[in-house]
Amino acid sequence: MSRTPENLISETQTALERVRAGAPLVQSITNAVVTNFTANALLALGAAPAMCDIVGEAGPFARIAQGLLINLGTPVPEQRAAALEAVTAANEAGTPWVLDPVAIGALPVRTALALRLRELRPTIVRGNASEILALAEAGAGGRGVDATDGVESAREAAIALARRTGAVIAVSGPTDLITDGERTVLLSNGDALLTRITGGGCALGAVMAAFAAGAEDYLVSTVAAVSTYTIAAELAAERASRPGSFQVAFLDALDEITPEHILARAVFA
Amino acid sequence: MSRTPENLISETQTALERVRAGAPLVQSITNAVVTNFTANALLALGAAPAMCDIVGEAGPFARIAQGLLINLGTPVPEQRAAALEAVTAANEAGTPWVLDPVAIGALPVRTALALRLRELRPTIVRGNASEILALAEAGAGGRGVDATDGVESAREAAIALARRTGAVIAVSGPTDLITDGERTVLLSNGDALLTRITGGGCALGAVMAAFAAGAEDYLVSTVAAVSTYTIAAELAAERASRPGSFQVAFLDALDEITPEHILARAVFA
Amino acid sequence: MSRTPENLISETQTALERVRAGAPLVQSITNAVVTNFTANALLALGAAPAMCDIVGEAGPFARIAQGLLINLGTPVPEQRAAALEAVTAANEAGTPWVLDPVAIGALPVRTALALRLRELRPTIVRGNASEILALAEAGAGGRGVDATDGVESAREAAIALARRTGAVIAVSGPTDLITDGERTVLLSNGDALLTRITGGGCALGAVMAAFAAGAEDYLVSTVAAVSTYTIAAELAAERASRPGSFQVAFLDALDEITPEHILARAVFA
Known about the structure:
Chains A, B, C: This is Hydroxyethylthiazole kinase. Chains A, B, C: Belongs to the Thz kinase family. Three copies of one chain form a homotrimer. With 269 residues, chain A is of the alpha/beta class. Chain A has a single domain, classed as Ribokinase (UDP-N-acetylmuramoyl-L-alanine:D-glutamate ligase), CATH 3.40.1190.20. Chain A has helices at residues 5-22, 35-45, 58-64, 77-93, 108-118, 129-135, 155-165, 202-212, 218-237, 243-256, 259-265, and strands at 25-29, 48-50, 67-71, 97-100, 124-128, 168-172, 176-179, 184-187. An eight-stranded mixed sheet of chain A has the order 2-1-3-4-5-6-7-8, sandwiched between helices. Residues 140-146 of chain A have low confidence and may be disordered. Chains in contact: A-B, A-C, B-C. The B-C interface holds B 25, 32, 35-36, 39-40, 43-44, 48-57, 60-61, 64, 78, 247-256 and C 31-34, 36-37, 73-77, 103, 106-110, 143-146, 196-199, 242-245, 247-248.
C-alpha cells in the first residue's frame, strides 16, 4: 500500500475532528447486553446514537441515519427482520453499514443471517478472528464472543472476504488487522481491560459506523475508528486498573481524546 | 397562576420527602437502551422500580403499581401490546401514568401508538420540544431523540395539548416548561452533561411517575420531579466533568439530594 | 451437617480459584434490565458470559455452556420458549442450571413458567424469601422483586422445596440461607447497598452458575458463590457509600477479591 503510517495518523486526526464536528446520527441494531454501553460510547465520542430496531421503522430510519450498525449478538426474530429491512434501505440510500457477526459459527440462527447479510454488500465487517474465519467459511467458529484464534490466523481469510464482498474487514485482537483486500493495516494500540467489560468489541462496531459517516475511504475511516477507540482504552487504563472503574474511565476517555493523543500514541504497521 | 416560586420550592421539598418515605412502586415499560439506568435512577432516588412489560402481566402489575411509565423508545410488538394493557389497567385502578413519546414524528409505528395513547388520558406527558410538537400535531418531528426545537417553540402546543388531553405536559430542554393548560412553570436547573449520557431524559419520565404516586396535584409533582432531577444533575456536574463519571455521580446525587439542596438551588420562573 | 465453617471457608477459597482458572462459559437467559450488569459481573469475576436466549440457539448453546442461568425478570414469549429449550438441553448434557423466579406469585405468566421449570430438575434455585415461598406454593408472593418476608420465614419452605426438587435452594436476604434439604448453611456477609442497585440479586444467580461449573457438591459451590459475592460487596462498600459509585466499586471488587479476603471475612453459621 502507498499510505504511510504518517499519513494514517494525519487522516485519523482529521476523521476524529469530522466526527466531533458532524455528530453523525448512528443507528444501532445491536444486542440487548450492550445497547446502553454502545449508546454511551457514541455520545461520549460526540456522535448521536439511535437504536431503532423494529420492523416498520428500521428501514425508514436507515435512510436518514449517517451510519448503521448490525450486531448479531442477540438476534430475536423482530430484530432479524428489522436488520434486513434496515440494510436494504441503507443500501438504497447509500448509508454505510457495519456488520458485526457476533459468535457466528456454532450458532445456527445468527450464522445463517450473517451469511445472508454478507451478500448484501456491507461497508465494513468487524469481528474477532474466529468470527471472520467463520464468515469466510474458512473456520469452524468459536465458543462465543471470545477470540480463540489469533488475528494473524485470519489474515488470509480477511483479505479473501474483503475481495469477495467489497467490504473493509476489521479483525479485532491484541493487534487489529484492517484490510480492504488490497491494502492491509495493523494497529497495536489498546489495553486488555477492554476485553474485561462487556461490549468492548460491540461498541467499536458502532464507532466504526460513526467514522464511516461522510468518509471518502472506508479503510481509512475504519483505521481511524480503531485507532481512536484503542488509544482511548490506553488513556482509561492509565487511570483505572479494574473493570468497573475502567468502563467509566473509558467513556470519559472517548470524550477527552484529541488529535494530539492520536499523534502521540498511534502505532501502525 | 397563584402559586409563587416559594410555594413551589416548599412543595418540591415535601414531594421529595414523600417519595423517600413511601418508596413508591414504579412500573416502567421503557426502551431497551435505558432500562438499567432507569431502574438505578429510581433506586438511587428511593423508589422501587419494576419493569413489567409483557402481555398478561403488564395489566395486573399496573393495578398494584403506584406509578407507571410508558416510554416508546424501542416499541417492539410485545411491548406495544403490553403498554396498551397497562394503560387500560392503570386508568381503571387510578394509577397515574407518564407517556414519553420518544422520537415520534418521523417514525410511523411509535407515532401511531403515541397518538392512540394520547387519547387514553395520560397523567403526564414528557418530551423534548420536537416530540411535544409532534404529539400536538403542530410539528413534523425530529431526527431522533435530540431536541431540534427550543422549549419556547413548543409553549403554545404544550398548553393546547394539556387542555385537550387533561395531562400535565413537560417539555424538556435547557429550560424546562411544565404546564397543565392553565398554570405554566419554567425551571432553569440542570447541566448539559445530562444530554451526554443515554437515558438522561428517559429516566426523568420514570422519576415523574415516582413523584406522581400519591400526589394531589400533578403539576406540582411534575415540577418537583424535574426540579429534584435537574438539581441532582448540578450536584453531579460539580464532581464529574465527563460523561462516564458524570453518570456515576448523577446516580450518587439522586441518593444524596435533600430538601436543603432544593431550597438552595431551585430556579423557577 | 458434618461440614464445619472452617471447611466451608476452605472450600470457598478453592471454588474461587477454580472459577478464576477455568473461566467457565456461563449462559445467561436473563431479564432486559440486568443483562449488562450480569455480563460485567461475570467478566469481573473471571468467568466468560454469553447471553444466548433465542429459540434455535439457546438449546445448542446450553450443551457447550458450563453453567446456565434462567432468570424470569422480563419473560417475553421468545425468551420463555428459549428457556425451556435451554433447560431441556442442559439436562441432557449435564450442564448445571440456576432458576431465579423473579417476582413470581402475583404475576401469572412467570409464575406458571416457574412452576413448570421447578419440575425440570433445576440444580439451584435462587430467590428472596417471598419468591421461594411462592415457588414452594407456601406463600402468596410479593409486590415485585423486593423481599417482603424475612429469610427465616422461608426456612421450612426452602428445605421442603429442596427435598421435593433435588435442587439447592438459596434464599437471599440480609442473612442468606442455603439448603439442599439435608444440610443448611447461613451466611451473614454483604451490604445493604447491594439492594440499592438493580441486578444485585440477579447477577448473583449468574455467579452461582459460574461456581456450579465443574463443582462436585452444589451446596458447597452455592455457598462459595454467595460468600464471594457478598464479601465483594463489603469490599466495595468500604470504598463507596452511594449506589452509583458502589456499582463501579462492586465490579472492581469482584475482580480484586482473593481467597485471603474470604478467609478474613466469611461469616458462616
